[in-house]
Every structure is written in C-alpha cells, then in structure tokens.
Amino acid sequence: MQIRDRKVFLTALAAVYPKEAPFHPSENYPEFQGAEWASLKAEKDNFVYEGIRDLLKKAYPDAQGNYLSAVIKPGDRVVIKPNLVKACHEKNDEWEQVITHGSVLRAVVDYVILALKGEGEVVIAEAPQTDTSFSEAASRSGIADIVKWYEKTAPVKVTLLDLRKEEWLSKDGITVKRTDLAGDPLGYRAVDLASESAFSEVEGKDASAPLYGADYDLKETAAHHSNGRHEYLLAETVLLCDVIINLPKLKTHKKTGLTCAMKNLVGINGDKNWLPHYRMGSPEAGGDQFKEKSWKTKSERGLVTFGKNLMYRLPAWLNEIFRPIKALGRLVYGDTSKTVRSGNWYGNDTCWRMVWDLNKALLKAARARSIITITDAVIAGEGDGPLAPDRKECGWLALGEDPQSLDKVLAFYMGFDAGKIAYLMKPLSSENKECEVVFTSENAKARIESTPPFRPHFGWVGKIELPADTKNSL
C-alpha cells in the first residue's frame, strides 16, 4: 500500500458530543435523501456530524455529496478502526477523553455506506487492551447502538468485531482470569519486518535487559524479536480489506509522548505480547524500564520479574494472592501515577520502535488501496495518558492519508516538538515530501491556533514542549 497524499485537513467545532446514540445528524443533508439509515429523526446540535462532513467535503469535493467515492468503490470491504483501548478512565468513570466517541464513527460510516451504493461491507474492528471489556467499551462509546441501528436500516452489512484472541479480568493490575475469544474469523498473519524493523538498529543489545511485551511471558516476546526476526501478528480482516479508516483519539501517552494515528494501530494485533513496550532495567544496564539506577529500581525489577514469572505459571485465579503484595509494593516503591516505571518516560527507546514497525508492517502487508485517518480531538486527553488523562476540550477534528504527517501536525498544535518524538522522526517512506495543512475555514484555523498547549505525561514534562515563543502557525 502506498501513501497517496500528505495533506492534513483540520476543522474546529464546539467541544461537545451529542448525547443519544445512534447520533443522528442535525440536518437532513441532500446527499442522503431517501436513505433511512442516515435521515430519520435528527438530533439537535450534532456538531460532530457537521464537522466530519466539512472535513470530507474539503478533502474529497464532490458535487453530489458522495465525498468518499474518491477512495471507496461499490463492493469494497471497508474496515473502520476506532480506539476502544479501555472502557473508561483508570481512576474514575469518565470516558470521553479516553476512547473514540461513537458520534465520530457514525458520521464516517454514513458516508462509507453512501459510497458503497448498496454493495460491499463495513467492519468496525478493534483489539483493545487485553484487560478491557470490549462490550462495555462499545456500549459506553455508543458504537454498539450504532451497529444495532445499521442492522435494521443499512443497505450493506455492518459488523462489530473484537480482534483479540483473549480477554483478561484484572484486579488492581493483576490478571485473575483469562477468557478465550473467537478472534478474527479470517485469522492472523505473522508479518516479519526483519532488517526493515526499527529494532534491527538495536538488535543484540544487552541480553540482561530483555524486552517486555504485554504479558508475564518474556520468552514469547523475545522469540518474535531476535535472531533477525521482528514480527507482528496482524489481523487478516485488516490486511485483506480494500480501504482502512483509522479513527484514533488524540491523547498524551506515557511511553511515546502522544497517541494518535500511528499508535492506534496497536489495535490491529491478535497478540499484544508480540509488541515490545520497554526493556527491563535502567539505562545503565541497557534498559528503559526505569529512569535511573538505584537500590529501589534494582530491587523492584528483581521482585517484579520473579512475581511475573510465577504468575505466568500459576492458574490465573491464584494470582489473587498477589493483589495485597502489589498494594504493599506501591507503598514502598511509589505509585505509578507519580513514579517512573514500566518505560513511562521520555527515555523509552522501545515502544516507539514498536509503533513505527506496526505502521511499516501495515504498509508492507495490507491489500488496501489506501488508509484514511480521521482523528477525534473534540475532547482530547492530556496529562496521564493514554488510560488516565484529564479532559482537554479542543473541538478539533483532523483528516489525513499519511498517518505520520497527521501526527506531526497535531503534535505541533498540541504544543509539542515532533522532532523530539521518536516515532515521528524516522520516515515511514523514502519520499521526503513536506505535508500541507488545510483548514476548512479561517475561523477553524484561529480556533485551533488559540488552543492552550497540552500538558504532557509527567515522565515527559520539560522534554517535548515547544518553546513558549514558538509561532502557533505551521
């Protein structure tokens, strides 16, 4: 798959989501005349729908209003990839700044269906964090109700698909139950980047600092990232579709600085333990798990490694005994919301490579003609992202076909230096074209440029912010 265009389109609207799923538009737009799935009762002040329409109209002008017909053809299978990483904020019941809002997805899918002209299929697919309830995340976001609406009204098949092979139940950060899932009905493919991988630059690094993935089994992660092999288990539903539409949520991120288009591809994986997140230990020992070497970090690494190896061998239900031990550990070693651990800092030299690799793997292996990213930053997340961010009421929506260009532009308007965010510094393509920023209106431009800078995760404070006197226009 080739990146077609490096333009990034931006619009601004009221930082308010509509409340009632399935989030009908406020107007009966002429392009949907006679389409039951897109008209019926309109919801008052659905600014999101109008914003998505404005973006599509600017990016793909069409006199008949069939904007996505420029990239979607009748008979296509279109995969929509939202961010449903966690059903809600880690510390409270908020969720609007954590996951993609269903109103963004609703507007996009309406235009996808219009372009399909009654022939084809829409698959809404995601592999959230393994300890997330997929059904709860889909329900909270409104996506479950949207799919039910389309089942009754849409002229093409619209399905919701959990791409994971397992779902875990975690208590206090300890996995106490594992449930097998059906996963991707089309299966999975191991995509080996070999020497093309960003990890090939650091292969053979100190063996005393092994890679850590997403589970207690360190050997499994190492098996997929050693001896010249750097592979990822990607869902065939994504690899075999005709068009991919990526719908990330804009947030700060504890391991990569920010999360948007490129980081959202973590959710096309069948097994997250193939995804290296950090190296064990401190930089002095070749790792990036901790910021510095001390008796605390050394002893914590030893205890955590021992505990995780033990938990991997025990039945999941027995892991309950580790909950009070972990609570004691927080008292001794500090809470993760205040203490750097698990690679949650600017010195993480591992997670960005995984993010870059996933995007490279998709470009290499996917059959799709194109990938379009539409970013939900109506209410974004700042601070302790991606799972416990504070609300940032931006009112932004962004569209682009090059995920790296889109992330660079949004990093700038967040007040971050893209030149200090590693996965944005290594080009995905040999082409070295500059991206072009296009606003839907002068008012949108002024709104976005006047948004106060985002507050980074505490492990990144002072390391990625643009100088205060930087011009706020690209």
Give an overview in words.
With 474 residues, the chain is an alpha/beta fold. It has one domain: LarA, N-terminal domain (Rossmann fold, 3-Layer(aba) Sandwich), CATH 3.40.50.11440. It has helices at residues 47-59, 102-116, 134-141, 143-153, 218-223, 236-239, 295-313, 323-333, 351-365, 403-414, 422-425, 442-449; strands at residues 7-12, 77-82, 121-126, 157-162, 166-171, 174-180, 188-192, 211-212, 225-226, 229-235, 243-247, 249-253, 257-259, 278-279, 370-384, 388-400, 436-439. Strands 1, 2, 3, 4, 11, 12, 13, 15, 16 and 17 form a 10-stranded mixed β-sheet that branches. Strands 7-10-9 form a 3-stranded antiparallel β-sheet. A two-stranded antiparallel ribbon has the order 5-6.
Q: How would you summarize what this structure contains?
A:
This protein is an alpha/beta fold and 474 residues long.
Give keywords:
globular; 474 residues; Rossmann fold; alpha/beta; 17 strands
Task: Summarize the SSE layout with pairings.
Blueprint: E1 7-12, H1 47-59, E2 77-82, H2 102-116, E3 121-126, H3 134-141, H4 143-153, E4 157-162, E5 166-171, E6 174-180, E7 188-192, E8 211-212, H5 218-223, E9 225-226, E10 229-235, H6 236-239, E11 243-247, E12 249-253, E13 257-259, E14 278-279, H7 295-313, H8 323-333, H9 351-365, E15 370-384, E16 388-400, H10 403-414, H11 422-425, E17 436-439, H12 442-449
Parallel strand pairs: 1-17, 2-3, 2-11, 3-4, 11-15, 12-15
Antiparallel strand pairs: 1-16, 5-6, 7-10, 8-14, 9-10, 12-13, 15-16
Order of helices and strands: EHEHEHHEEEEEHEEHEEEEHHHEEHHEH
The class by helix and strand makeup works out as alpha/beta
- Distance N to C terminus: 28 Å
Main beta sheet? 10 strands, mixed
Q: What's the number of extended β-strand segments? A: 17
> What is the second-level CATH architecture?
3-Layer(aba) Sandwich
Domain module count? 1
